[in-house]
Amino acid sequence: EFRYNPAEIEEKWQKTWTESGLDKTPTNSDKPKFYALSMFPYPSGSLHMGHVRNYTITDVIARLKRMQGYRVLHPMGWDAFGLPAENAAIDRGVPPAKWTYQNIAQMRQQLQRLGLSIDWEREVATCSPDYYKWTQWIFLQFLKAGLAYQKEAAVNWDPIDQTVLANEQVDSEGNSWRSGAKVERKLLRQWFLKITDYAEELLNDLDKLPGWPDRVKLMQANWIGKSTGAYLEFPIVGMDEKIGVYTTRPDTIYGVTYVVLAPEHPLTKRVTTPEQQAAVDAFVKEVTNQSELERTAEDKPKRGIPTGGKAINPFTNEEIPIWIADYVLYEYGTGAVMGVPAHDVRDFKFAKEQNLSIKVVIVPENGEQETSQAYTEPGIMINSGDFDGMASGEGKSAIVEYAEKQNFGKARVQYRLRDWLISRQRYWGAPIPVIHCPNCGTVPVPDEDLPVQLPEDVEFSGRGGSPLAQLESFVNVPCPSCGTPAKRETDTMDTFIDSSWYFLRYPDAKNEQQVFDPAKTNDWMSVDQYVGGIEHAILHLLYSRFFTKVLRDRGLLNFDEPFQRLLTQGMVQGLTYKNPVTGKYIPSAQVEIANPRDPETGETLQIFYEKMSKSKYNGIDPEEVLAKYGADTARMFILFKAPPEKDLEWEDADVEGQFRFLNRVWRLVVSVDNRDAMNRVTTTGELSKAEKELRRAIHTAIKEVTEDLEGDYQFNTAISELMKLSNALADASCKDSPIYAEGIQTLVMLLAPFAPHITEELWHLLGNSDSVHTQPWLKFDPTALVADEITLVIQIMGKTRGAIQVPQQADKAALEKYARESEIAQRYIEGKEIKKVIVVPGKLVNFVIG
Length: 850
Ligand code: ANZ
Ligand code: ZN
Fold this sequence. Notes:
Elements lengths: L5 H15 L12 E6 L10 H19 L3 E3 L3 E2 L4 H10 L3 H18 L10 E2 L3 H16 L3 E11 L4 E3 L18 E10 L5 H6 L9 H11 L1 E10 L6 E6 L10 E4 L5 H5 L5 H12 L3 H5 L7 E9 L6 E7 L10 E4 L5 H10 L7 E2 L16 E2 L10 H15 L2 E7 L4 E2 L1 E2 L9 E4 L3 E4 L27 H4 E3 L6 E4 L3 E2 L1 H4 L3 H4 L12 H7 L4 E5 L5 H15 L12 E4 L2 E7 L27 E6 L10 H8 L1 H11 L6 E2 L2 H19 L4 H5 L9 H22 L4 H17 L6 H14 L4 H10 L16 H4 L3 E8 L2 E9 L4 H10 L1 H7 L4 E7 L3 E6 L1
Parallel strand pairs: 1-2, 1-24, 3-4, 10-12, 24-25, 26-28, 29-32
Antiparallel strand pairs: 5-6, 5-7, 7-17, 8-9, 8-16, 10-13, 11-12, 14-15, 18-23, 19-20, 19-22, 21-22, 26-27, 29-30, 31-32
The structure holds ligand ANZ and zinc ion.
Zinc ion binds next to loops.
């Protein structure tokens, strides 16, 4: 007998499948389509377990759908632009392209080792000119549609290296990763995409996505952050000018005791009195150097300063002071707020700190006034002139209505979502394809000149701004429109742009004439199942939805939403050892399992599961698992250990368990001695009891596995069903029967999407010459599920009165129920009291009556 040798068969079948083109996407087929997509990886250099889990899940789905008769598109690519490649260039002098392509080659090989049924002919890499040419083309579509524009915005500025830093390059203390300098905020002219134009549709269309987790839809809705309220204007004393504020609580207008501007607000300069000028300037400088996070943090004290200017509350005609404060953000609403300390938590804190007056205008229904903190709930209006006594909900509309009549303001809808800042002052990204001409202004690079290629003769010093900006030959070009010497844009695009459209390219990945042929992309889209990490729940998905809608409006696409169903897989966690006193993580190799202590300090260690990461020494290298057990076992373990959306705790014993299960399946199949029976048509004619039972187990497995996979992809319970079937086959007493042969075949076929290599090998050992992966998915026979019946004798007072047919597996209670309800029992009992019922399972029921 020969043994299961994963290393040998996995390599053999991967080679065979590649040669036979098994995983190629069918193009001329009238089958229904299914687009199965994993979020493409960043080519960091090596695969981690999170990748393995992600791609295994998508692969099982793709394989299942093929067997179920769909034509399947299951592609892969690389999200290949970004900072780490540029850091490698700065630190080690390796050109970003070289570093990236080396990593891609290595990771592609690792992916192929997993036996993923990917159509590699459609591979894309966002850093390749034949891809970013179209990223640039899409940018120009946005420009033409008026959806790309430039404005000044704050960037992180390293004053020592004289360069812009990405947020990831600034540590939590606000210092540069490289120079260690305190990072400053600096205003630069930057490119934005007008995602706010689509805020309402992006919010509303979440309703078109029943196949998305509610949690993700909620996160998107919160990010878009729609709120309804009012825009109200406060005239400035002594100036012919007004301060517009946005408020969600117009019902508190009578409680306004001051107005606050964001320090960056253009009116700040104008309302500040000469006495306050110096203090205001100093405060503005300080605040603008802080990040938004620092400014809005709940626990930080609210800081501000009076400008000396005054405004008028148009409802009360009261004069109130104008302040500036760090907690008012320039980018939100109007960048100005009416301060209502009695009913807003931040305003209350601020007023207490700055000694501003607090005026209560809303009280709870029971009338008790709150003075120790802000009362933020709805209630009844007081101290509010003609509006006294109104409920606050009603009051909101009444105030807005009055304001509209008097020209003080109007109703307003506000979104938290801001336009998308896409400019990066870096090298390793798609250059923004425009040229700045002194005569013509901003000129798009003509389509025929795309791509604007990344030059290779650049220097990576990490100092002095973007390498592109320093390269004369790149920067100095004639204007495409008038020929005057002009300057090329040197900003590159945020890498989120590259990943906002890659799924549209796979259906037509090699097209050199067009971004994609709309007929092909419309045919395959939208993605039927998207699988990826929850960390992309907001930005990547929102941006992809935005791009889809814009390209639809440009006439390129005929659908509204890119991803029909979304599965966000849980984390892969490793066993973690931590010293609770020092907070240090200890590698498991240094830990004595029976007595886990810190080898240095002797402290007893905490042991728990946490997301695998290098810094916590709790990772498991996929390569090691593949080398030891093979890809099929790794896949089976990952699928069996937890439902796909839940976190998964890595446990070697369970990996071992799946390896043993595959070995059992192997032995079961290779020990079939009646191979001829395999080819016989199974009949349901006269089957023995054992055959009927086995057949029921087989068809139950088909039914359960199919339902587990079709519902919410419950791979773990599907694998349990396969284990049951393998046990039923091992225990079967009819191993010569064609039913047994049917069972063996069924096990192999149902297992195929999960463990593609071993099943292919076994399929061939069973005498087949085609692939198990091209077999039609099995359908269960409902009649096989019906349990066998037995004859149940009915006795009254020990005397046999007749018999009925009942299901074989009926338990005692069920047998009694069948007997009581039978015509025989009813006839003989005739309303008399039943004193006792004796049930002999499998045989009879005896009623004692009186
Ligand atoms: C007066 C008021 C009274 C407010 C009250 C709240 C409670 P959302 O729901 O997030 O839209 N606000 C407006 N613009 C702001 C800005 N640029 N920076 C900081 N805060 C700003 O919140 C809207 C509320 O946030 C607005 O309603 C305003 O405070 C504040 F009892 O106006 B409110
Ligand atoms: Zn010009």
